[in-house]
Amino acid sequence: MNDKQEKAYFDSESLKKMIASEGKEVKAILCYLWQNSINPNDVVELIDVFEILFTDNYRLSLCCNTDATGLEAINYDYVAEKKEIEKEHGDKIKVYGVNASGTKMWTDVIGKKLQTVQLTKQDGNYLSDSVVFNFGEERRIISISPLDGLIIDFYEED
Questions:
Q1: Against a cut of 0.85, is the pTM above it?
Q2: Residue 63: domain span
Q3: Staple partner for 112: which of 17, 22, 52, 135, CB 3.0–4.6 Å?
């Protein structure tokens, strides 16, 4: 099996959405959480979609791709998603939004411009395993975990 079959890459639509966000000023950070309470003794909660809202109202939304092998940029409709999940799963699975702008992770980037979206290039394609958001002196990394959803952390170069 070659590398291309083992690794996930961003599609052109995701790349266009990320490029369109560069140079824009951050207005808010939103996280959409998915909570599974099918087993009341083992409630699972994870970040399903991460979204940056910019001052011009452009939204960059990232989630896990349908194969759960990487990230993708999507057009996210929280209200429609919530209705669909509730219809399909009742009250056992919930989706809810959280404004994370005031958290320690994000407070320092509100009002700053997203200078670049950094990706890893391999064989002419961009790996979708992680994204580094460069806000100048502040950087954050988004990656995925098959069991934990989106993972968000401070990023420091080695």
A1: yes
A2: 3-154
A3: 135
